Amino acid sequence: MDKEQRLKVAVQKTGRLTDHSLDLLVRCGLKYSRGKDQLLCYGENMPLDVLLVRDDDIPDLVQEDVCDLGIVGANVVEEKRLGFIARGAAPLFIEMQPLDFGRCRLAIAVPEDFSYRSPRDLDGRRIATTYPNILSRWLRDGGIAAEVVVLSGAVEIAPRLGRADVICDLVSTGSTLKANHLREVETVLESQAMLIRTPLPLSPAKESWLNRMLLRIDGVQQVKESKYIMLHAPRAALAAIRHLLPGSEYPTVIPLEGNPDKVAVHAVCRENVFWETLEGLKAAGASAILVLPVEKMLA
Ligand code: PRP
Ligand code: ZN
To answer: Is residue 183 part of a domain?
Structure first.
């Protein structure tokens, strides 16, 4: 297929989102080989290539039409979006959907010996961050008069270097803060990985692959929690048992040969099925309960 007809997806080169992003594409059916320079993954079984880049560059690459799609943290997307708005421009990427991985938060953290009670304690302080737009909005909304110190990285050491009093940075496990004797005190923004796309119209071939990928991503997300559940139920208890099946709208009810009082119930549960649910089903009269993982799903 002609090179221009291949979808290009920007993914973080090395970092928290890298493995999960590639894993999502693989679950969507992609088989890829990695180029010599390690920066391009060539899709072998579909017209889709992955560009491995710095996460902060992903919105720009989608914006500049180098890539059609990007998988990037909502924190990066929001920072870029606010930057555009501040300059009176409109961002040229469309936020498609959250991807349910890479959860983290942009948080204010103070040195361990900083006595912090409320955001008021930030008044007159210097806050180091690589997210000046998001932080400034949060300060404005809270009516806090703090100075934003914009850094390009290594924010966590800014207080020790005397460049700032507190920091505003991404926290995922919290180990970076801990290692730097900092304490998280406020959440500024909750984040997770997002899919973004160019607003430009794509060729019909590309648009059609994009739509297929979107459906597959939906499918991957749905099966993550989904279970296929099978059980036998007394007809009299059917209503109660249907009510107990988590997140399943229309279970299949099948008569049981030779047993007019009982039916088999098969259902896809869109939520995880816990032991408590099974115990509840059993108490309601269900028997022969089986719970199976769902491998693929297409709504
Ligand atoms: C963030 C942040 C911290 C680290 C926090 O960096 O800047 O360094 O993650 O994670 P933890 O709470 O699990 O220790 P990120 O990996 O997003 O890299 P980047 O900001 O340089 O792109
Ligand atoms: Zn980054």
So the answer is: yes
Domain check: are 71 and 214 in the same one?
Answer: yes
Q: Which range of residues forms the domain containing residue 56? A: 3-102+193-222
69 is written with which tokens? 């799609």
**Distance from the CA of 238 to the center of ligand 1, in angstroms?**
50
Residue 33 beta carbon below 6 angstroms from any ligand 1 atom: no
Show pLDDT as tens, one digit a residue, over the chain (299 residues): 455 789 999 999 999 999 999 999 999 999 999 877 789 999 999 999 999 999 999 999 998 889 999 999 999 999 999 999 999 988 889 999 999 999 999 999 999 999 999 999 999 999 999 999 999 999 999 999 999 999 999 999 999 999 999 999 999 999 999 999 999 999 999 999 999 999 999 999 999 999 999 999 999 988 888 899 999 999 999 999 999 997 777 899 999 999 999 999 999 988 878 899 999 999 999 999 999 999 888 87
Indicate whether residue 6 lines ligand 1 (CB < 6 A): no
Query: Which ligand 1 atom minimizes the distance to the CA of 75?
Result: 17
DSSP, collapsed to helix, strand or coil, labels residue 113 as: coil
